[in-house]
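[scheduler] slot 2 assigned
[scheduler] job type: sequence-to-structure, two independent chains
[scheduler] chain ordering preserved from manifest
[runner] begin chain α
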Amino acid sequence: MPNDAATIETLQPGIALLRLTRATRLNALSLPDLQFLHTLLDTCLADASLRVLVISGEGECFCAGLNLKSLLDENGQLPATVRENMDLQQSFAGLVQRLRDTSVAVIAAVNGVAVGAGMALALAADVRFAAQQAAFHVGAIKIGITAGECGISYHLPRLIGAGRAFELMLSGRPVASDEALRIGLVSEVLPAGELLDRALQCARQIAAHAPYATAHTKRLMWQNLDAPSLAAAIELENHAQVLGLMTEDFQEAVQAFLHKRSPVFTGR
């Protein structure tokens, strides 16, 4: 059946916007909604020309995470089995993994409150911008389950440090946009009306580079966050650089530099 949880539109060649569109439900997601989002990602990530994916939400909320009401039966009870709950959790976590695994750069334009798995979606992005009214809530610890969900326990300490991450995850207190900027959770805070324009500006800057350069920079950054040593990180960098030197786009960049013109990259 049709699903109105989200839309994808092309903003310009190579740049797409995934927008959560159930503002009246704070963009909270049920299992069918998650399955629909996976279908949307199947389509857009299969497009070899896509370079940058921007994610945002409609209304006052970026994403409130799981739609808890969708789990209840007609008696207000939670009938799901362990297997069904695991399917739900893996579907949410799978979105996070896909954003990390793709070579497409992902920008989160956090327009409002991001709660639980919604916060996890923002953390999985490579770049985050926030509107002034945005706030980040771990959420789950307040309803009797762990704050570690959908990669939050992995991403948050790597973004803001373990000490701050422990405090936020154990207390469950919200992080307003000004604090998010101060602790490095977002790159910039803007008025709501300027948020998507800023995200698009960044997307254009990324898409202007050679596809090999951006894809492998993203891969190197994430992999080297877990590098066991400086030597291991440099080894990975060396291999990526040598492969890059063999591309036609590198040759084009050299010629453009020599002739004082802008390069025209082809992805080869």
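[runner] end chain α
[runner] begin chain β
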Amino acid sequence: NSIALELIHRHAPQFTNNHPITQHQRLVDLLYHDIIRHGIMSHRRQAKEEDPLTASIKMPLASGRDFGIGQYITSFKVGTPSQKFWLIVDTGSDLTWIRCRYRCSRGDRSCTRKGRINRKRVFHAPLSSSFSPVPCFSEMCKVELMNLFSLTTCPTPVTPCAYDYRYSDGSAAMGVFANETVSAGLTNGRKTRLHNVLIGCTDSFQGPTLQNVDGIMGLANTKYSFATNAAATFGGKFSYCLVDHLSHLNATNYIIFGTNRNQVKVSGNTRHTKLELDAIPSFYAVKVIGISVGNKMLEIPMQVWDASEGGGTIIDSGTSLTFLADPAYQAVMEALKVCLGFLPARFPALSVIGNIMQQNYLWEFDLKGKRLVFAPSSCNSS
């Protein structure tokens, strides 16, 4: 009850066309193949130790200077086959959306090819086999997406769930919700796909912010944000290191979703503080206890930092300057005698740490551990 298979060395005459090879040729051949084999085994071991379950999503992150905006941008690949777009990275937004063409009218040639419409990059939903609209009659549309400004209009059961997403500056994005596939690179060099990611297919946008970019990557602390989705799959964390906001597009770092913290050189002590995820819903709030100038603590009323009394502080990548509630702003200006990228906010008001103050720091948002880790860095990869 055994199987017998003949083992023959690859240097046997029947494998060398009956042309004998010298001992030197044998050794050269053995050495060549052994080096290749060793490299393959080492790669397989490394890949096994850092498989997609333990690796992290890695997306390029750059200043939006060359796009004429004060935010930071990343490239975003969505759909099957994937289509690439430039999105603003915004920790204050819930919804990830892109400029999109959903319906195709008869004779509309723009829906049969990738490219631009009215000189804008547009996601062509009909070209993606993974594009799945959220039905307007579904519980998800009627209840769960209410906070994302879903509309109650539902003429037929198969009509997609529509939205009219409003921003604080008066801008608005209008379109339909859909589940899609997002493609991304991993820290181990491999690729991965995130399925059933909620996106907005925006066919109309009102506002000045998005003249040269293609949409928003929503990273807020909410159920359907991309940060929550990606971090939940890859370990409950995301991190980024913002290069100087005046840098050009070729000066990039990365935004990492997962436990593999952004690998940059830090130039000082790594510190951490509690993330107050429930204090100011959807935002990444921190408990500020005061501001000091020249080792002297400024006299600022504590209610300025208290979210329960109309104050509080958040970290926001989508805001450029830093807003301080009036009592804090006046104290800082009196101590510094010069404006350094701060703006006043009439109290009661939210204080916002903008991206200029965040630049040249590594920031890690630990959503599971409710902890914010930060350290000074040039944001150059080590």
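[runner] end chain β
[qc] chain β: The chain has a mean pLDDT of 85.
[scheduler] slot 2 released
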